[in-house]
Design brief:
With 137 residues, the protein is of the alpha+beta class. The chain has a single domain, classed as STM4215-like (2-Layer Sandwich). The chain contains 2 helices and 6 strands. It starts with a helix and ends with a strand.
């Protein structure tokens, strides 16, 4: 499930509209002071159908858009948000290891909070679903 971080990150890093943005994963070792940035992270997972034989998991992926406050920050964040939603909503990720995932679905947008008052950002959230089969069934 966590392998999706790299797959989503790679998809966004390919987008020319995000060329000026550092696209990074939450588990990646990098300079997190560099902005503007898009940080891909799993923020949790819900459960779908669950039986003795299998469990359906629905991870929630956040693409945290962060920028420095400025006169152009809103326009830059808006353009990045449009690119992220357009790139990921309806896209079906292929993950190493062969796990099948459903298409990503836009699940919401929320304001991000930062300790640094000079930063502004929003988390664009997506969900996808896969079935995990019991090894003991």
């Amino acid at each position: 499930m966590l392998l999706l971080e790299q797959v989503i990150k790679s998809r966004l890093a390919e987008r020319s509209a995000l060329a000026a943005w550092q696209v990074r994963g939450a588990s990646q070792l990098c300079d997190r002071t560099q902005v503007p940035a898009v940080e891909v992270r799993m923020s949790g997972a819900g459960l779908g159908d669950v039986s003795r034989e299998a469990a359906q998991l629905e991870p929630r992926w956040s693409c945290l858009l962060v920028n420095r406050r400025s006169d152009t920050a809103a326009a830059e964040l808006d353009a990045a948000m449009e690119e992220v939603v357009g790139s990921l909503h309806g896209w079906r990720p292929a993950v190493p290891g062969g796990r099948a995932w459903s298409e990503l679905r836009a699940a919401g947008v929320r304001e991000a909070e930062f300790v640094d008052a000079g930063l502004v950002g929003y988390a664009v959230e997506f969900t996808t679903v896969s079935v995990f089969e019991s090894l003991d069934a």
